[in-house]
């Protein structure tokens, strides 16, 4: 079993289809939140709710020490439903330094 993004998406789709689930609540955590959000975006008619914690949000800054600009572009191409937030120039410890920018980015949708 190859564990890459495309296969994870196929496995989740297949699992839900095989069980015949409809109007489901997806509970997701950390990097698994991408797969839950991605499924919900593609199958909104099958979703009753989403519960998530420590959800994956691509947070990037300039000079991109943790996530360089080319990596941000790659993530955007590979994961089209992944939310991104640019928090500006300078060095940041995101969770404590810029919570308002993270929250406002999520609320725009």
Q: What features would you describe in this structure?
A:
This protein is α/β, with parallel strands linked by helices and 109 residues long. The chain has 2 domains: 1-56, no CATH class; 58-109, no CATH class. 44% of the residues lie in helices and 22% in strands. It is built from 5 helices and 4 strands, in the order αβαββαβαα. The protein has a two-stranded parallel ribbon. The protein has a two-stranded parallel sheet with strand order 3-4. Strand 3 (58-62), helix 3 and strand 4 (84-89) form a beta-alpha-beta unit. The chain starts with a helix and ends with a helix. The mean pLDDT is 79.
Order of strands across the main sheet: 1-2
Mean pLDDT: 79
User: Unreliable segments (pLDDT under 50, ≥5 consecutive)?
Assistant: none
Query: Structural class, from secondary structure content?
Result: alpha/beta
- Count up the helices: 5
Estimate the global geometry from the Cα principal axes: globular
Instruction: Provide the succession of SSEs.
Output: HEHEEHEHH
Radius of gyration: 16 Å
> In percent terms, what proportion of residues is strand?
15-25%
What is the domain tally? 2
Q: Write down how many β-strands occur, each being a DSSP E stretch of 2 or more residues.
A: 4
> Could you tell me how far the N terminus lies from the C terminus, measured between alpha carbons in angstroms?
35 Å
* Percent helix range: 40-55%
Main beta-sheet strand count, sense and barrel state: 2 strands, parallel
